[in-house]
Amino acid sequence: MTQSLDAISPDIPTDYESLKSHISTLSDSMPKRLLQCARYSLANPDRIALGTTAEIASAAGVQPSTLVRFAQTLGFDGFSQMQQIFQGQLVGRNSEYMERLAKIRESGTNTPGSILGNFVERSKQSLDDLLRQVDTAALERSIEALSAAENIHLLGLGRAHPVVSYLHYTFGKMGVRTNLLEYTGGILEERVQFIDENDALFVATFSPYSPEVVEFASKAFGRRVSVVSLTDSVLSPIARVSSTVLEVNEAEHGAFRSLSTTMCLATSIAVAVGDARK
Amino acid sequence: MTQSLDAISPDIPTDYESLKSHISTLSDSMPKRLLQCARYSLANPDRIALGTTAEIASAAGVQPSTLVRFAQTLGFDGFSQMQQIFQGQLVGRNSEYMERLAKIRESGTNTPGSILGNFVERSKQSLDDLLRQVDTAALERSIEALSAAENIHLLGLGRAHPVVSYLHYTFGKMGVRTNLLEYTGGILEERVQFIDENDALFVATFSPYSPEVVEFASKAFGRRVSVVSLTDSVLSPIARVSSTVLEVNEAEHGAFRSLSTTMCLATSIAVAVGDARK
DNA sequence: TTAAATTCAGAAAATTCATTCCAAATTTAT
DNA sequence: ATAAATTTGGAATGAATTTTCTGAATTTAA
After folding, report:
1. How does strand B256-257 pair with strand B252-253?
2. pTM for this one?
3. In this structure, what are the phi and psi dihedrals at residue A231, rounded to the nearest 5 degrees?
4. How far off is chain B from A31, nearest CA to CA, in Å?
5. Which stretches of A53-163 are assigned E, i.e. beta strand?
6. Which residues fall within 8 angstroms of residue B95, CB to CB, at 6 or more apart?
7. Phi-psi region of B224 (alpha: psi -120 to 50; beta: other; left: phi over 0)
8. What is the largest CA-CA distance in chain B?
9. What is the tens place of the pLDDT at every residue in B104-155?
10. Preferred mutation among B107, B235, B269 to probe A, highest tally of A CBs within 10 A
11. Which of A22, A27, A263, B137 is deepest in the core (most CB within 10 A)?
């Protein structure tokens, strides 16, 4: 049907990967609305594959005709021709996905893909556990404590450091001032004196629990500071010196634990505190 | 528009799995042509999802109108309504997903528990997307590059910093030496000279992409260093200056993005590189 | 075998869709 | 600042698509 036209324009992408890079290349010289299309297509390829021009256009905040122009800018006849590539990707990807799912169960395969498949599976499981096992009362008290605090101090070393680093960033973006306690030699303990009774200390620590962190929290707790802790077991030594304890069972693979679930909880805490403070 | 009709026929399947059993149940009492439709649909769900009635009918050896009657026999308004379920299968929507979304909508959106519920659900979705959309070839090339590197340098600022911080820790535990590049004033750029051609640079950056990070990666790339980047879109400026690009669509809630999915990918990378190096 | 009921094919109708077109708005170059 | 070029929104168009309808064919029941 469009054979002659295909022959005329031989340089248009025929698979999704090259289409992606094609879009990415041309997007440099695209005007506002077409760039909007480019962004939307790459962010929502599924909707491009399945939607109609009207639906997609409205979701992307452009006119249907703009979508057509976008496709034509990329060298296609029109939208429909471009859509076929997105559809092809959808079908191909789905069958790959099915194969990968089947392989997850078989242990022994150590390809990057199967390792990822494993972690995805376990992380989903772990997220489910989080939602099922979370102590809602403790979560609420934690949010209250952090919302009421004059200053929030954040402490976490080793595998826990990314958690407080993320909270530092996210709280900052929401206008909540936090103090990220970095461990630079032995001077950590001295900082306890700068933590006020009206402040809160958020501390994350996982097995094996750094003694310095527990010690620091203990001292703060002794000074009647609200200590909100995030840890991997209620048996954690941090539990004794905390006002509220949040527990997370993280996905693991052999000796290695992810931070996937922990980050989900951390994000929720940040958003809830941000809401309460606004 | 079809609300009243939906209400009248409340027992039609809403996901592919139940549709399948619905079809096989009813197919017992179907006349020849409808049975033909039933068989074809179960054998070629992808074509039902993406084709037009004319195309599918011709492929299945029936009339387009028969396809419509088939859908109506199953309880649908028409073909289009049935087609949506086949499309949902392709994108990975199932009944559990629908139920959970409904639950989240029911509950108030501002209690800490519901915020957490929301993030858990979105994170799971996002993890699924990761497994579906991941570019396995790019992932494998990334692992290779990092495994082959003499030294691995890690760079990430803002929301991306927790990612490299985590990698620094985890690689360390596996005996893989890494160099975490911290941004302390303007001296970042100078460090490029210490990165060798046999080294690899792992850089994480998310929108809005820090110019310093892109600039640094660009210089390293110019020095023929393997640059493995983790970012949120192929339109990311880092993509141009990377040997391999890994893309992650992170769960978000309003303006706030988690790091849940990203951490899952990061963990997988660390484990895969650890395996390859051992 | 015959009549009634069901199923079917295909044409026709109604709707939706992708695409084109053009005037207005915006950007770029001078 | 002005003109030229580009980009855009939105209506108009024509093609394609889904759905309905009807008479013919087939099946079922008596």
Report:
1. antiparallel
2. 0.92
3. -150, -175
4. 15
5. 152-156
6. B14, B15, B17, B18
7. left
8. 78
9. 777 767 889 999 999 999 999 999 999 999 999 999 999 999 999 999 999 9
10. B235
11. A263
